[in-house]
Amino acid sequence: MKDVNLLEKKGITLIALAITIVVILILAGVTISYVFSDGGLIDKAKEASNAMNNAVINDQASINGIGEFIEEEGGLKPKGNITFGEIVWNNNKAEVTISTDTEYTIQYQINSKDGEWKELENNGKVTDLSYKDIVYARLKDDGRLGDIVDKTVEDTLEPTVTVKVGNKTENSIDITVEATDGQSGLAETETYTYFLGDEQRGVDTDSTYTYTGLTAGTKYIVRVNVKDKAGNIGTGEVETASKVSAPTSWTLIGTYSSSGSFTIPEDGYFKIACGAASGRGGTAKTAYARPGADGQYDGYNDGYGGGGGGSGGYAESSFYKNKGDVITFSVGGNVSCEGITVTSGGAGGNASSSSSGGGGSAGSAAGGNLLNVQGQRRKFRWTWV
User: Fewest beta carbons within 10 Å, which of 56, 182, 283, 347?
Assistant: First the structure.
């Protein structure tokens, strides 16, 4: 009997265990289904998370709205735009216009944000500015102050440069540079860089320069770069020639019998001869000469004076002139040309021809009549027309 009861008890126990296991499995199945099914535990958790995130976003938007309300209505910073106009230069000083699209007051400082702020009307100008100055500006409304904006004074224009030729010799040329810069101003070091053609000859702060080691009667292009404080480079150049060697003979290029002028066609030496008629009878001549093929025509050697008259007054001078220079001559009492004044001649005729005659009164420049004014130049590297 004991064994039978024991088996019965064990059987009951095994049955209870099996039932328990089945119940657990059923419950487990239900739980897993609930967790992973649509609308289950995981979906519920996701929905809760999304709801939380949306709440945070809404709260932040509300906080931002409160901040904007405080700034606009109660007052941390006035809202609005500040606009700087273009920098305007005049005699190395600049000015700039500041404007706003609000009714707030504009305040500004120069080169500082910590000093005293000055007030400016809308579209007002800040003046007396220099290169690299910084203008700071902000808006003010009672005790509220806006964000600070700034504008730096810049210079983007190069200097204006003119090169002028001065004294010249057979192997040197002097130049003077005229340079202006109405913005930042010319640089204080290495202002001028001098070139002869493409060859750099020197760098200096002096606006005058002498090119040396040149060849007589040779054309050169002289170029000068000028730098301003902002580093902008302006350039000027001129074509010129070194002085030709002095001539030994002359070639006629024209004669004149009344007041007038002559424009120099090319750099070179020129000779001017002036003559007046004799005081009584006869005439005087002058020759405007250049070197001839035989090289013999040099000076005043044509016939002067007229039949039976004394010689007229005569004077001549040679000099170096640059292309474009103008020689002027006039008649009125004495004859003058490039500083030459005709003086009275001797009593005798001085012509080499038979028309000279003999004797006669001495010529008088004041009383004589101008027949010709002479100019002479040495022929060199250009073609005669």
Answer: 56
3-class SS of residue 294: coil
Statement: the pTM of the whole predicted model exceeds 0.90: no
Residues of the chain with confidence (pLDDT) below 50: 1-2, 4, 6-11, 74, 278-311, 333, 344-385
What does the DSSP 8-state code read for residue 312?
P
**Could you tell me where the DSSP H helices lie in the chain?**
2-36, 41-69
Token representation of residue 205: 């702060």
CA distances to 2, 353, 358 from 303, in Å: 183, 6, 13
User: The tokens of 333 are what?
Assistant: 């009492």
CA 242 → CA 220, 268, 318, 321, 375, distances in Å?
Answer: 8, 9, 18, 12, 22
The residues near 155 (Cβ < 8 Å, ≥ 6 apart) are 89, 131, 183, 184, 228, 229, 230, 232
**HSE-up of residue 46 (Cα within 13 Å, Cβ side):** 8
Please state whether beta strands 268-276 and 260-263 pair in parallel, antiparallel, or not at all (unpaired).
unpaired
363 neighbors 344 (Cβ within 8 angstroms): yes
CB 129 within 8 Å of CB 117: no
- pLDDT tens digits along 228-276: 999 999 999 999 988 888 777 777 777 766 677 778 887 777 777 666 5
| Distance separating alpha carbons of residues 212 and 175, to the nearest angstrom | 11
DSSP 66: H
Measured CA to CA, the distance from residue 286 to residue 298 in angstroms comes to: 12
Structural domains present in the chain: 82-152 (2.60.40), 160-241 (2.60.40.10), 251-377 (no CATH)
Q: Which residue from 209, 212, 237, 238 is spatially nearest to 323, judged by alpha carbons? A: 238
Q: What is residue 30's three-state secondary structure?
A: helix
Which residue in 309, 321, 320, 323 sits closest to 359, CA to CA? 309
Please state, as a whole number, how many other Cβ atoms lie within 10 Å of the Cβ of residue 4.
8
Residue 359 pairs in a beta bridge with none
Per the CB < 8 A criterion, the answer to whether 276 and 365 are in contact is yes
Q: What digits encode the pLDDT tens for the residues 10-54?
A: 445 777 777 777 667 666 665 555 555 666 556 666 676 677 777
HEC secondary structure over 344-363:
CCCCCCCCCCHHHCCCCCCC
CA 117 to chain CA centroid, Å, is 36
